[in-house]
Amino acid sequence: MLSAARLQARKRLAARSYATSASLFPGQPQSPSVKTSSVPGPAGIAASERIGKFQDPRAHALVVDYKQSKGNYIVDADGNELLDVFAQIASIAVGYNNPQLIELAKTDAFATAAMARPALGSFPGTDWAGIIETGLLKVKPSGLDQLTTMQCGSSANEGAMKAAFLAYSNRRRGGKEFTTEELESTMDNAAPGTPALSVLSLKGGFHGRMLGSLSTTRSKAIHKIDVPAFDWPAAPFPELKYPLDTFAAENKATEEASLKAVEDTIVAWKNKAPVAALIVEPIQSEGGDRHASPEFFRKLQQVLKKHDVFFIVDEVQTGFGATGTFWAHEKWNLPEPADFVTFSKKAQASGFYHKISTRPKAAYQQYNTWLGDPIRALQAREMIRIIEEKDLVAHTQRVGGYVYESLEALQKEKVAEGKLINLRGKGEGTYIAFDLPTSAQRDAFVKAMKLEGVNVGGCGNQSVRLRPMLIFEQVHADIFLAATKKVLGSL
């Protein structure tokens, strides 16, 4: 039990924390409010059923009143105000109805970009270079000064894979012009113009739902079942045990085994469909928030360089500050930059960073009509300004540390004994997860948390993942922690 003095100190800190948040979102609720006996309630269920008349509603978690949602709080069709620590599957960075973003939306530049919706691949606007230079290029990963904007996370990963294939083939051709045989054979989807190449992914990873990205997705069968896929290889991702300090030897061994499997796979596929690129998430998200050490990724890069395989880092979910650094892979301290870094979600824009050496040989090889969206690039630029002005990356690291330490303490309490297991994400900002013993208990936890006024998400088979916004404060953390303790006690 906390002493009265410590409890008062915590309340004062929470009050100051709320004041910071309230200054950005004056109308943000101070606490959750649940008005219905179930979440979703009758209005939400009816709204979902209405959508179900023309679109599959079975994945609906909530039908949302986005006009009323503010800051860290999401409001559903029944008027329930929930603290949102899932944030549209990790896709909201600076809060619902952020005033600075609302003001941006009222500008002539935003309106013009929205109504023009230019075909950026062929008809970019006179302001396009300025928007990118003062926005997304300001946060480019070290060593990558090229940016190709895309439509979504899946297309960002597909674009990076395609760029890797083009660069790999051009390198193998020695930079020479395409031959007549290559140009003619590719029209029949045949070699040599259509080469047999592959992308290696790691088991448990999720990289998208388009045909190429889906072929590298290895998280859940339901994502892939009944859809044709490329015959591409996969290697195991390290299966770490927690707590890390207790299982240091075992974890080192599983990482070494994974690295060996990667190299063995690359060698085995050289005569079948050579591996042109490997794609990996810094933290496997949909697959259950699975981690590996910085040393693992440094050694992985060494293996890839040894075999001339391009390195694609999928930061679609981890990028834009959620892990306490702007890009999660910054913590790896790679001796050389990765070849490609993809992004989406919290950026609200999408694309991939790369080097000029991986620009395609010819125009139209890496092309689509829209190549992104200028209003999303404007939105990303404004969010970058907010993140920098509020120092939200460092803020997220501090709040994440508080959340992790609090969950670690809760894990030792009787109410959570044997229920809150495999806590992970120390030092990774608010990118924190834990497991429950079974998938049924995890699902029950997520459902019960909504009744306590907290919207949280799951991943993997039995994991709960935190994906709050960068404006998530200690006061919000305390609400989440209190609800977690209560729900664990009821399971």
TrEMBL record:
<dbReference type="InterPro" id="IPR015421">
    <property type="entry name" value="PyrdxlP-dep_Trfase_major"/>
</dbReference>
<keyword id="KW-0032">Aminotransferase</keyword>
<dbReference type="Pfam" id="PF00202">
    <property type="entry name" value="Aminotran_3"/>
</dbReference>
<dbReference type="InterPro" id="IPR015422">
    <property type="entry name" value="PyrdxlP-dep_Trfase_small"/>
</dbReference>
<protein>
    <recommendedName>
        <fullName>4-aminobutyrate aminotransferase</fullName>
        <ecNumber>2.6.1.19</ecNumber>
    </recommendedName>
</protein>
<dbReference type="InterPro" id="IPR049704">
    <property type="entry name" value="Aminotrans_3_PPA_site"/>
</dbReference>
<dbReference type="GO" id="GO:0034386">
    <property type="term" value="F:4-aminobutyrate:2-oxoglutarate transaminase activity"/>
</dbReference>
<dbReference type="GO" id="GO:0005739">
    <property type="term" value="C:mitochondrion"/>
</dbReference>
<dbReference type="GO" id="GO:0009450">
    <property type="term" value="P:gamma-aminobutyric acid catabolic process"/>
</dbReference>
<dbReference type="GO" id="GO:0030170">
    <property type="term" value="F:pyridoxal phosphate binding"/>
</dbReference>
<dbReference type="InterPro" id="IPR005814">
    <property type="entry name" value="Aminotrans_3"/>
</dbReference>
<dbReference type="InterPro" id="IPR004631">
    <property type="entry name" value="4NH2But_aminotransferase_euk"/>
</dbReference>
<comment type="similarity">
    <text>Belongs to the class-III pyridoxal-phosphate-dependent aminotransferase family.</text>
</comment>
<dbReference type="InterPro" id="IPR015424">
    <property type="entry name" value="PyrdxlP-dep_Trfase"/>
</dbReference>
<keyword id="KW-0808">Transferase</keyword>
<keyword id="KW-0663">Pyridoxal phosphate</keyword>
